[in-house]
Amino acid sequence: MNDKGAILPAENGVEAAVVGWLKDALNKKVFDALLIPVEVPAGDSFAYLLLRDPALLENASPLPPVMPIQGARAISRLTMRGNGSKRIAAVVRPCEARAAIELTKLEQAHLDNLWLITVDCPGVLPLSDYLEDPAAGAARFAEASQRWDRASMRPACQTCHYFSMPASDLHVGTLGSADGTVFVIPGSPKGERVLEDLNIPLDVALDDWTARVKEMERAQTERRQQAHADLRAGIAGPDGLLDVFSDCINCHNCQRVCPVCYCRQCYFESAALKLPPENYLTRSERKGALRFPPDTLLFHLGRASHMILSCVSCGACEDACPMSIPVAQVFSMLADRAQETLGYVAGRSLEDPLPLATYEMDELHQVEQPYVEIYHKREVQDA
Amino acid sequence: MSDEQEFEPRIIYFLCSWCGSGGGETAAAHHLHYPENVRPARVNCTGALPAVHIIRPLIEGADGVAISGCYPGDCHYNDGNFRARRRVALVKSILDTLGLEPERVWFRYVAHGEGQRFVDTATEFNDHIKKLGPNPLKTRSDT
Amino acid sequence: MPEGLKINKGAEDAVRGLLRSLLESGRVNGVLALGRTGGANGGVAYSLFTDPGAFVADGAALPLLPFMPANAGGLLSRLTLREPLAGPVAAVVKPCELRAFIELVKRSQGSLDNLLLISSTCGGVYPLDVGANGGLKERLPRYWEAVKQGVLDDDVRPTCRACMQFIPDNADITVALVGEEDLDTQCTLFLNTEKGAEFVEGLEGTSLSDELETEQIKRSHGQRAAYREELFAGVEVGMQELIRTFGRCIGCHACKTVCPICYCSLCYFDSQDCEYLPEIYESELERKGGLRLPPNTTFFQLGRLAHVSVSCVGCGMCTDVCPADIPVSTIFSKVGASVQALFDYQPGKDVTEEIPLMTFEEEELAQVAT
Hints:
By secondary structure, chain B is an alpha/beta fold.
């Protein structure tokens, strides 16, 4: 891993540059296929297409205005049962790449024959905003992303501080590059080899990019911390929390679209929670009523306990919620704190072991309840 | 009589089948007592206790959840208690972030021969929960 | 002529009063009905109530609210899935929810034992996004005015406006709402079964015999039929058109999760059968040049149609929950209607009527064999 990159000409914009570069790679058989967002036939959304025919790149978009499906899900479906013989380049947002890395650790994806290619990311629009008027949405996105203005993006994107990608195989750096050019930065030996095969020399210093990225990271981290502090104050305690989830209809969309929630059958939909009527009536008597279907809060807190250590704060959950519950905001707040407690950053590197699959002998003593011997003596006194 | 004295907490005390329950058995052998409202629930190993089962009692009506297992290094399954410690840290992080009183969850090692420590934990936790009062989630029917 | 009980209270008061007295007297152990969640947001959810105090005037229960956060047919299945109820429980549900439950009972996903089913002639429900964040409150006066006139508020779910099955004569008790101009001061409960009559014993009111289907209801039928035709005609058919319509489908399967008829714990499309080996992806890629991932977007929709259309009750949950704004319920209702007509089958009408795919006649459907 060196600190040099390459320059890619981009007179017609980032999208054209990236598509052109990948088309070239496809034609030169450096890759056998690409996995890239392509506009759907009706022009009202984008879907991941695995393609080997360069002609299909006509409507491709490396940075589409929306993320209807989290790219890591597409990568996982493709490689769940192993890698084939084809070398595939997947063009994804940084959070999608990070989720793919998490899924690989969770054995739901295999990245041996797959190259993750990312681009500095300005965010995506909330899906429902975009669907109201796709053409206007696309225009709004194009304009806002030029200025790196995240105000109209998903709430999760507004507070994203991992918009640039250290752990993909190849990264396109648009921040800090001179007009009409973009950086191409290898992130792994695999990525370096591709640039060699394409005769693209690594002869450019990355100081400008690094500086600009760090500057934006600092600003975004501050925004994120403020947003989480505000949210925490606003929803603290059972009342605040149940307010947030008062509209929840238990559709489980959030779980379905989450890239990290990979279980074929979610625990919260399994027979474990489908109980005889006496159970429901007894619980109802205890509290006067029982919200039905039951276990709404359990689903959210339980799902959090299952996945926040791998949560990449992509915001797919919030986009999919039909009741406009700020799921991603709550979960990314939980994720940050839990990951920090266990010294882990989701999606940073394949080398970081999953936090629940490992431990240290000497850690987390704050969780151990100290034994106060005085208590024992008091009991003897009172006896 | 204060409300505090009338409030009898509902407490679930998870005990691993080796040291945790062993502590309970030693306490019994020494005729030591602990409050009746602290209900033991046996798991094979604290490492086998899913995070969901710490959260669920707190939603369904428990006022406190205590967990006791072997000391680090003594786990019958080598490292179950280390996994448990991480899992408890995770649950406490979630509860703390959401203002749901992580102090209603205690994680304390109790060895097979530590009968006094076992009853002290049960009694101390019971008193601690009495001070905290009933779990506010208990009365919410919209959970 | 069905037996009825006219109560001198507005419909909401009457129904709440009935449920409160059933709980207080211990004649039922619980009531499944809509209610306020504790949140300040004005959230609404179904709840299994055991406290009669929920049914006082400003209590948590809102049994007749025009909202459907979940199809209660699925909830009744959840309640009675493992075992039938040991004692009586009342449930206040919309006609399509009742029909969905009957379809589930036919599939051994629930039991009718000990259930007191209360429904009403139905003026439709508002879509989920209208109800989110407390949006229902301001709609209610307009809604009830429309119901009294026997018409539907334009803003209710499209499948509600097209619904022809809004007279649930197979409930134990049916509350007359549609076309009842004096809803605010009096209310007629139609007692369709012996069980219904038994459970209202002792309730203050005047017995009468009357038809559920009034003139207003017949007019409403006509309006709905016209809208239904228009709605279905608007669906774009043909493979290319379907690909366009489902082009923005994100494969979240929310439509399946909220559908009362889709009860499978593990859907075929989530199972290992649809987790393909890399070789399969590669050969498809070779063949077609391009392959949408994850796969099976349109296949899922057609497959689900094959599985449930025969029992689709047109509740409209699927459209409401779709993050991609696809009019799923319009398409499913349309296909459902034609499949049901083919088999001359009315889902949810009669629990003894077998599901068409579970039975056959020796001589039928000659047009299918070539």
